[in-house]
Design goal:
Layout: H1 2-19, E1 22-30, E2 35-45, H2 46-54, E3 74-80, E4 84-95, E5 100-102, E6 106-113, E7 116-124, H3 131-137, E8 149-155, E9 159-163, E10 166-168, E11 171-176, E12 181-189, H4 196-221, H5 226-230
Parallel strand pairs: 1-8
Antiparallel strand pairs: 1-2, 2-4, 3-4, 5-6, 6-7, 7-12, 8-11, 9-12, 10-11
Length: 231
């Protein structure tokens, strides 16, 4: 019996050390010229990393520096707010073909197919075998997940035709916690190099001008009334 409790205690400690607290905050904006700008912050609590290190654990899992590849327009900076430590990526008009995240747990891609922009990929923080998902629902360990947050927000130009995220105008958001598996899916109609909103405004203006021209010629050609002749 004593051996069973010892094994159980070890399992709980390992679970807590693996779970801990994490935050991923991704805010991206895609322009109609097929570039992406914005920022991504991936960080873990310093308490968690110190605990794992002090107990001989592998802290390389907390290294978020390789989440995105080095490209022109991509800069990285160490992130620390006193509680969380990690990395912030900033993107300045990075071409979509150069923007992607594809590591062991995260794959995110924004691509063009004809007149559509496609968002696809997933973020799996369940541990791969569902270990963290189980710990998240366990009353003994569920409390340790409440401070974790995963938020991915992407603003797309044009008309949002389909998505499995939450829409607020043209911003699509996916949210969860450590232990969740998020799947990204969105389709926006956005002809390359053209802003659909601007096109509709310009098109409406052309229609108004055409209507005014027609009205002008109709009034010029109408027959004068008797009262107008007398004058």
């Amino acid at each position: 019996m004593k051996r069973i409790f010892a094994a159980l205690a070890t399992a709980i400690l390992v679970t807590l050390a693996t779970a801990g607290c994490m935050k991923l905050d991704m805010n991206l904006k895609v322009a109609n010229n097929d570039t992406v700008s914005g920022s991504v912050t991936m960080a873990f609590t310093k308490t968690l990393m110190d605990y794992v290190s002090a107990n001989g654990g592998d802290t390389t899992a907390f290294n978020s520096k390789g989440m995105f590849s080095k490209q022109p327009g991509v800069t990285t900076k160490a992130y620390s707010d006193g509680e969380f430590e990690g990395t912030t990526y900033r993107f300045a008009s990075v071409p979509l073909k150069n923007f992607s995240s594809n590591n062991q747990n995260t794959s995110l891609k924004i691509s063009r197919e004809g007149s559509n922009l496609i968002v696809s990929g997933e973020l799996d923080s369940s541990g791969g075998k569902g270990d963290l998902s189980s710990a998240k629902t366990n009353p003994l360990t569920a409390e340790f997940f409440k401070n974790s947050s995963v938020k991915v927000a992407i603003e797309l130009p044009g008309e949002i035709k389909q998505t499995n995220g939450v829409r607020h105008g043209n911003v699509i958001t996916w949210q969860g916690q450590l232990g969740d598996k998020l799947t990204f899916q969105a389709i926006a109609y956005s002809p390359q190099g053209l802003d659909p909103v601007l096109v509709s405004v310009v098109g409406g203006g052309i229609v108004l001008v055409a209507a005014a021209a027609v009205l002008f010629f109709v009034l010029r050609k109408r027959q004068p009334l008797i009262g107008e002749i007398a004058e």
